[in-house]
């Protein structure tokens, strides 16, 4: 039985990755789960320089998931290269760096800083709803998306995954623009914009008022978008949004995804991603499936 998948010539031992921002740099989670069991660890967004993120409160629970407005807080590329890469390299898993910027120049700067870094793939986040400049604004206009992807691709020395926002009218339009800008793979979905109000305090629960919604409730939305994007483009797609167990992950694979990422589920169970990988293996063996290509994209 072969659980391996290939993303732009990078071979993952299984299709299960962590979703950026929900697994730190892997360090905290390594106490609770075996990183060797994961296809890849996708780290929290890394910028050219340290970012503070947004003021609290920036996390709230909602029905079926959570809202966050963390705002890409991170210690910057130099710290990441010095501390996080050597830590992650102790494990037999691939490293994906999620990169962020407030402007095209900042995306270029971080990509240049990461040239030569010992990582396997880059994931360009043009879909964060929690920053006032940059972030999602790059991922909601096809022309802007194509331009920033092109600029980053030119400087990238690793295959480039582009992470798409669900907060658009037609996600396939942005998907095509990212591919025409040079994306080697796509990942989706980032969080959906959402809000919660505390009626007793008559205040929005999040300091920034609006945040990003994730967790089980977004799964049907994410699945439909992954299905549509897989039909629209020819590059590998990494599906995410509300995946909590192996069955959820298999739905994304049947919709056409090559790999999946586990996000919010890590907060309720730090071993969630490892369990999903194990569950996929069990399903394959139970169903007599030798390779995931036998079920990938079987929904026509
Ligand atoms: C607390 C938190 C922080 C996140 N930070 C990032 C980030 O830094 N970069 C990014 O591309 N996505 C980020 N995301 C989005 C997730 O990677 C993922 O796309 C989204 O949460 C949907 O998956 P899920 O429902 O399994 O969580 C974050 C999500 C959460 C909940």
Note the topology.
Elements: E1 5-7, E2 10-12, E3 16-18, E4 40-42, E5 59-62, E6 65-68, H1 77-88, E7 94-99, H2 104-113, E8 121-125, H3 142-155, E9 160-163, H4 171-181, E10 185-188, E11 192-195, E12 197-198, E13 203-204, E14 210-214, H5 219-232, E15 237-240, H6 246-254, E16 259-262, H7 265-268, H8 272-287
Parallel strand pairs: 3-16, 4-7, 7-8, 8-9, 9-10, 10-15, 15-16
Antiparallel strand pairs: 1-2, 5-6, 6-14, 11-14, 12-13
Helix pairs in contact: 2-3, 3-4, 4-5, 6-8
The protein binds flavin mononucleotide (FMN).
Residues 19-22, 44-45, 68, 70, 72, 98, 125, 128, 163, 189-191, 214-215, 218, 240-243, 263-265 line the site of flavin mononucleotide.
Structure, explained:
With 300 residues, the chain is of the alpha/beta class. It has a single domain, classed as Aldolase class I (TIM Barrel, Alpha-Beta Barrel). The protein has helices at residues 77-88, 104-113, 142-155, 171-181, 219-232, 246-254, 265-268, 272-287; strands spanning 5-7, 10-12, 16-18, 40-42, 59-62, 65-68, 94-99, 121-125, 160-163, 185-188, 192-195, 197-198, 203-204, 210-214, 237-240, 259-262. The strands form 4 sheets. It has an 8-stranded parallel sheet with strand order 3-16-15-10-9-8-7-4. Strands 5-6-14-11 form a 4-stranded antiparallel sheet, with no helix packed on it. It has a two-stranded antiparallel ribbon with strand order 1-2. Helix 3 (142-155) packs parallel to helix 4 (171-181) and helix 6 (246-254) crosses helix 8 (272-287). Flavin mononucleotide (FMN) binds next to loops.
């Amino acid at each position: 039985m072969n659980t391996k998948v290939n993303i732009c010539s990078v071979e993952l031992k299984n299709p299960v990755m962590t979703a950026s921002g929900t697994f730190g740099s892997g360090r905290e989670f390594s106490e609770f789960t075996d990183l060797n069991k994961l296809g890849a660890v996708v780290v929290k967004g890394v910028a050219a320089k340290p970012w503070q993120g947004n003021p609290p409160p920036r996390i709230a629970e909602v029905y079926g998931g959570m809202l966050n407005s963390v705002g890409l807080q991170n210690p910057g590329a130099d710290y990441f290269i010095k501390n996080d890469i050597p830590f992650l390299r102790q494990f037999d898993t691939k490293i994906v760096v999620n990169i962020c910027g407030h402007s095209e120049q900042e995306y270029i700067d971080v990509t240049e800083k990461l040239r030569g870094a010992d990582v396997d793939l880059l994931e360009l986040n043009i879909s964060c709803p929690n920053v006032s400049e940059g972030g999602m604004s790059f991922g909601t206009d096809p022309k802007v998306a194509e331009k920033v992807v092109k600029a980053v691709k030119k400087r990238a020395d690793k295959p480039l995954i582009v992470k798409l926002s669900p907060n658009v009218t037609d996600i396939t339009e942005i998907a095509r623009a990212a591919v025409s800008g040079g994306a080697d793979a796509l990942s989706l979905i980032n969080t959906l914009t959402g809000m919660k109000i505390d009626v007793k305090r008559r205040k929005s629960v999040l300091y920034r008022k609006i945040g990003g919604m994730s967790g089980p409730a977004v799964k049907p939305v994410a699945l439909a978008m992954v299905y549509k994007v897989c039909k629209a483009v020819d590059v590998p797609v990494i599906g995410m949004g509300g995946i909590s167990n192996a069955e959820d992950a298999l739905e994304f694979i049947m919709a056409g995804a090559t790999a999946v990422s586990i996000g919010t589920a890590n907060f309720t169970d730090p071993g969630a991603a490892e369990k999903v990988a194990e569950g996929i293996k069990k399903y394959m063996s139970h169903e007599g499936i030798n390779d995931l290509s036998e079920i990938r994209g079987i929904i026509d």
